[in-house]
């Protein structure tokens, strides 16, 4: 770069011994003085169209900026819609999962009651309690005693409709 030159793009290597002659004679670039814009012009450009070039560049950048802002807004709207859709799906799935959990919890509670009932019957059989058939005939009591716990469980599941015959 020459000493008195504002051209920062100059790539020449200067001889420091002859710096005065090189600084002003070899630099063919000048600063536009038309509107004091400070734009460095190519050598000997007579029409000084730098202002129009800067305006064209600014307009181009503003158009690109507007385009990018529009694309950004549209992408944001798409993502907001997608997020809402996904949140609705998550809420729906969560509701379904809660209903299924409630159903399984109720079934488990019912099975536990049936198991406790069967366990009480089995304990009653081994202790000689007559709670199984109340006022049943003696042959029905013998039949109930001869049935094992597994047969009673199987009958219970068949009655509940949990197993196919």
Can you put this structure into words, describing what you see?
- The chain has a two-stranded antiparallel ribbon.
- The protein has 165 residues and is mostly helical.
- The protein is 64% helix and 2% strand.
- Mean pLDDT is 72; it is low at 1-11, 22-29 and 33-37.
- Helix 2 (50-127) crosses helix 4.
- It has two domains: 1-45, no CATH class; 49-160, no CATH class.
Main β sheet profile: 2 strands, antiparallel
Mean of pLDDT: 72
Computed structural class = mainly alpha
User: Which word captures the global form?
Assistant: rod-shaped
Q: How much helix, percentage-wise, in residues?
A: 55-70%
What number of domains?
2
Instruction: Output the strand order for the largest sheet.
Output: 1-2
Distance between the termini: 100 Å
Task: Note poorly predicted spans.
Answer: 1-11, 22-29, 33-37
**What is the number of beta strands?**
2
Helix count equals 4
Overall radius of gyration: 48 Å
Q: Give the amount of beta strand, in percent.
A: under 5%
String of helices and strands: HEEHHH
Output the keywords:
2% strand, two-stranded antiparallel ribbon, 165 residues, mainly alpha, single chain, disordered N terminus
Short characterization:
The chain is mainly α. The chain has 2 domains: 1-45, no CATH class; 49-160, no CATH class. It has helices at 19-25, 50-127, 138-146, 149-160, and strands at 30-31, 40-41.
Q: What is the fold's blueprint, element by element?
A:
Blueprint: H1 19-25, E1 30-31, E2 40-41, H2 50-127, H3 138-146, H4 149-160
Antiparallel strand pairs: 1-2
């Amino acid at each position: 770069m020459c000493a008195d030159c504002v051209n920062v793009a100059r790539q020449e290597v200067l001889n420091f011994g002859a710096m005065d002659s090189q600084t002003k004679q070899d630099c063919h670039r000048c600063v536009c003085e038309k509107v004091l814009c400070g734009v460095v012009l190519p050598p000997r450009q007579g029409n000084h169209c730098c202002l129009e070039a800067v305006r064209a560049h600014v307009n181009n950048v503003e158009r690109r900026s507007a385009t990018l802002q529009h694309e950004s807004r549209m992408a944001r709207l798409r993502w907001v819609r997608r997020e809402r859709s996904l949140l609705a799906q998550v809420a729906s799935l969560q509701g379904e999962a809660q209903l299924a959990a409630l159903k399984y919890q109720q079934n488990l509670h019912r099975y536990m009651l049936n198991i406790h009932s069967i366990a009480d019957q089995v304990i009653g059989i081994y202790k000689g309690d007559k709670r199984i058939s109340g006022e049943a005939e003696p042959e029905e009591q013998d039949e109930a005693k001869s049935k094992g716990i597994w047969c009673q469980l199987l009958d219970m599941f068949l009655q509940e409709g949990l197993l196919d015959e």
